[in-house]
Amino acid sequence: MTRALYIAATGQNVGKTAVCLGLFSKLLKAYDRVGFIKPVGQRHVELEGAQVDKDVALFKCHFQLKEAAIDMSPVVFTRGYTKEALDSPQKAKELEKQIQCAFKKLSESCDVVLIEGTGHMGVGSVAGVSCARVAHLLNAEMYLVAKGGIGSSLDEIALNEALVKAEGGKLSGVILNKVFEEKLPEIKSYVEKGLKKRGIPLLGTVPYAPFLATPTMHDYAFLFKTPLIAGESKRFCHFTERLLALGPAIDVQKQLKKNQLIITSTGREDIVMALLASSQKNPDIGLILTGNEPPKPSLIQLLEKSSIPTLYVNIPSYFALEKITAFVTKFQHEDSVKTLAAIEAIEEHLDLIVRCPRPKKKLS
Prior knowledge:
Helix content is 41%, strand content 19%.
């Protein structure tokens, strides 16, 4: 029988996709045929002529999976889907059937299938396909990714476990992610104590990997919903530093660092020229130009020649910085550097899940 591993999370931005990448890579070394499915998706892209969840595109492209993309992403919530589900009492049964049929196809060609959930255990419940419900339907081992912490993490685990139990399931284990290294021994010890009271094993404690949170200009283009005006070839450069450039150009030049994003208004051509002059010494900088007036064509030409990845957004610099600070980057299937970094950061911490035997229980 095909082994099914369902990876859910206590909420958004916990690092579920990164954990799935590392676990999938690990499974490939333990099984001959490994499949991937995201039963319920939200953010979608077009692949193989169908609208599929973006994480399906990520896994299919990176791991060169042969299974049909549509079978890996049977349900995608698009705009208006919630109202449609509420208006149609039969919708839940239709969605359940779509998911079960897709999973059955994958099971026929795979020894193990990794199932990625969407958000916390309750996401999808309005349409009758919550993470907890789908895991039960597919008779999957249920694992939960929680963010590194003690009290808040244990509280969130308890809430999510309640939904699993309500569907007749059981948590097979918890993975703590994004744990600060200096606090790792203490957090691991106390979370293990808390989980032991609930009969849940802690199967992995993953240190925080700062690089995985660094955005690219491609991410910022998505955030501001605007195309690059220069430096298209460097749209996947990662930026670990940010600088709101408001002072004299000479001071900005002194503050430049590697992998730094500069935010300044189009009216500060002196700063832009200083960046152009320094681009050879600092080849990995990026630029976001702001303000009511778009950059002059002559300035864009100079930026194109320098290959500095550049965006223009029609808002003040301060508001641009505010949006950037609040932004949480997601994985893109084109960003192979970040994908490989996630696999390397996660893979070594998940041996227990790979070795964990499949529980014996009959399909409902």
